[in-house]
Amino acid sequence: MPSISREEVAHLARLARLDLAPDELDHLAGQLDQILGAVAQVTEVAADDIPPTSHALPLTNVFREDEPKVCLPAEAVLGAAPAAEDGRFRVPQILGEEG
Amino acid sequence: MTVTTALPSFDEAIATYEPVMGMEVHVELGTATKMFCGCSTAFGAEPNSQTCPTCLGLPGSLPVVNKIAVESAIRIGLALNCSIAEWCRFARKNYFYPDMPKNFQTSQYDEPIAFDGYMDVTVDGVEYRIGIERAHMEEDTGKSLHVGGATGRIHGASHSLLDYNRSGIPLIEIVTKPIEVPAEVAPAVARAYVTELRELIRALGVSEARMELGQMRCDANVSLRLPDAPFGTRTETKNVNSLRSVERAVTYEIRRQAAVISSGGTIVQETRHWHEDTGETTSGRVKEEAEDYRYFPEPDLVPIAPAREWVDELRATLPEPPAVRRARLQEAWGFTDLEMRDVVNAGALSLVFDTVAEGASAGGAKKWWLGEVARVANERGVSLEDAGISVADVTRVEALIAEGSLNDKLARQVVEGVLAGEGTPDEVVAARGLVLVNDDAALGAAVDDAIAAQPDVAEKIRGGNLGAVGALIGAIMKATKGQADAKRARALILERLQ
């Protein structure tokens, strides 16, 4: 049984503002289904007596004092960006926010 | 938009429908560093000068939680009468938008650090209990500038520019339960809630909560229903960022939704934009469903399990509740209920408090902050704090009045001068030559002139008509450009004519 439907892939594409052709949707749905299927194999070995976990470490309350550290220089930060303008990261047009 | 003319009045709208509200308030904490890294949170720095691999989301970087931010969150939760989670986690909220370089926001999802509390607010002498659903920790996003379109909006922009200084600054999001109060007071209750929350946050000392600086931001959810019907579909009006706007935005949404439903339409679940200038909301994006964010537990941050001893320690640091503090200050200052409400609504409580603490009278402090300063702040569209006069300045003006160096009229000019950027009160006094003429030599000459110029008035006063003294004082004031000490002038006139 597929774990992700073609409709779900189309929905994700819409959220990501990706204009996918019908054959691309078929192709990606198949690929994503395989990936999810591979991950799902883990659930087969998890017995009922193993509680779900989100962290491998048995730790809680790892905190940092509220003390400022030195930041990266803006030139270095922007120098690593594909594009910059006026001291800011420049990104392509943002699609479909107001519509 | 032409729709406006078709809107029913607020009274017409609530004659048929009952509003249900929900408020979501984001508070930017006043910590020195960000939520998950040691970058400074100082306001006004050069763009992208306060970032590091963690808040830029660079591969291999790891977040570590700011302890003071957690303490602040717990203290806010306790002050809102919430339960504090014994164990909770952060989650990743995934979305497609460039304001977080990680491509997700680290937030809390189904395990908020504080939940199930309440806060009481008072409107027109009636107390309403606002249920608090949750208060959770998250991080702020970067700031976007949209270039190439009209009026800086995304729509029509050719590209956008990002400043990540703000990304990662600790935020506490406080969400109410559905607020069901009598329809006629609903907008006022919404405003009172945000006002009270702001005061609580300030009293806790966890943030200055200045709405005009974005340190406190409000989203207002509104839906309508017929009496006893299930809840209607809600809209969420984003970024309603002044107390007055909260009331106006809720009122507008009630009227707009009533118009839509009455004409047979349906309300779409969506976010709406608030327009301060027109007092209207316009449609934003259709709201994403929670599942669209594909929340999952943040694997890079271990759970938070506040020990009960720690929570009790933090409980012991809670300040006096704002309502109790207000009642105490009102009594100490001798203000009426109305005067106190004016001070609170003007957001001047701490300014008046500080001014009185510096030695001014409560009445004097109130008079300046709610009078001249408020007028100028309003004209310039800034807060009282940013009007250009300090607590020390106002205190000094009051001291100059108390020692008899200024009368009320001159003091007003001094305050005007300080607000106009002419310097401290003493500098304005010196530069404008605003000295109260009260030495008998200088004042005496003006008194003699006035008597000589109006012999008929002088005759009336000699005849016992003391009401006529005002005419001479008026002439003296005119001659001294308002700098005469009126009390002393009166004494000198009577000395000469009785």
Automatic annotation (TrEMBL), chain A:
Spell out the coiled coil positions from the record. Answer: none
UniProt-listed SUPFAM superfamilies: Glu-tRNAGln amidotransferase C subunit (SSF141000)
One GO biological process this protein is involved in is:
glutaminyl-tRNAGln biosynthesis via transamidation
What are the recorded GO MF terms, alphabetically?
asparaginyl-tRNA synthase (glutamine-hydrolyzing) activity; ATP binding; glutaminyl-tRNA synthase (glutamine-hydrolyzing) activity; transferase activity
The protein's name: Aspartyl/glutamyl-tRNA(Asn/Gln) amidotransferase subunit C
Q: Which organism is it from?
A: Jiangella ureilytica
Q: Which reaction does it catalyse?
A: L-aspartyl-tRNA(Asn) + L-glutamine + ATP + H2O = L-asparaginyl-tRNA(Asn) + L-glutamate + ADP + phosphate + 2 H(+); L-glutamyl-tRNA(Gln) + L-glutamine + ATP + H2O = L-glutaminyl-tRNA(Gln) + L-glutamate + ADP + phosphate + H(+)
Query: What UniProt keywords are attached to this protein's entry?
Result: ATP-binding, Ligase, Nucleotide-binding, Protein biosynthesis, Transferase
What EC identifiers does the entry list?
6.3.5.-
Binding partners and assembly: Heterotrimer of A, B and C subunits.
Per the entry, what this protein does is:
Allows the formation of correctly charged Asn-tRNA(Asn) or Gln-tRNA(Gln) through the transamidation of misacylated Asp-tRNA(Asn) or Glu-tRNA(Gln) in organisms which lack either or both of asparaginyl-tRNA or glutaminyl-tRNA synthetases. The reaction takes place in the presence of glutamine and ATP through an activated phospho-Asp-tRNA(Asn) or phospho-Glu-tRNA(Gln).
- Family under the similarity heading: Belongs to the GatC family.
Q: What gene makes this protein?
A: gatC
UniProtKB/TrEMBL annotation, chain B:
Q: Does the keyword Ligase apply?
A: yes
Which keywords describe this protein according to UniProt? ATP-binding, Ligase, Nucleotide-binding, Protein biosynthesis, Transferase
Residue ranges annotated for the Asn/Gln amidotransferase domain, each copy included: 351-497
InterPro entries per UniProt: Asn/Gln-tRNA_amidoTrfase_suB/E, Asn/Gln-tRNA_Trfase_suB/E_cat, Asn/Gln_amidotransferase, Asn/Gln_tRNA_amidoTrase-B-like, GatB, GatB_Yqey_C_2, Gln-tRNA_amidoTrfase_suB_CS, Gln_synth/guanido_kin_cat_dom
**Root EC class:** ligase
Alphabetically, which GO biological process terms does the record hold? glutaminyl-tRNAGln biosynthesis via transamidation; translation
Instruction: Write down the chemical reaction(s) this protein catalyses.
Output: L-aspartyl-tRNA(Asn) + L-glutamine + ATP + H2O = L-asparaginyl-tRNA(Asn) + L-glutamate + ADP + phosphate + 2 H(+); L-glutamyl-tRNA(Gln) + L-glutamine + ATP + H2O = L-glutaminyl-tRNA(Gln) + L-glutamate + ADP + phosphate + H(+)
Q: What is its EC number?
A: 6.3.5.-
Please give the Pfam families that the UniProt record associates with this protein.
Answer: GatB_N, GatB_Yqey
Q: Which domain of life is it from?
A: Bacteria
Q: Name one GO molecular function term.
A: asparaginyl-tRNA synthase (glutamine-hydrolyzing) activity
Q: What binding partners and quaternary form does the record give?
A: Heterotrimer of A, B and C subunits.
Q: What does this protein do?
A: Allows the formation of correctly charged Asn-tRNA(Asn) or Gln-tRNA(Gln) through the transamidation of misacylated Asp-tRNA(Asn) or Glu-tRNA(Gln) in organisms which lack either or both of asparaginyl-tRNA or glutaminyl-tRNA synthetases. The reaction takes place in the presence of glutamine and ATP through an activated phospho-Asp-tRNA(Asn) or phospho-Glu-tRNA(Gln).
HAMAP family (alphabetical): GatB (MF_00121)
Q: Which family does it belong to?
A: Belongs to the GatB/GatE family. GatB subfamily.
The name of this protein is Aspartyl/glutamyl-tRNA(Asn/Gln) amidotransferase subunit B
To which species is this protein native?
Jiangella ureilytica
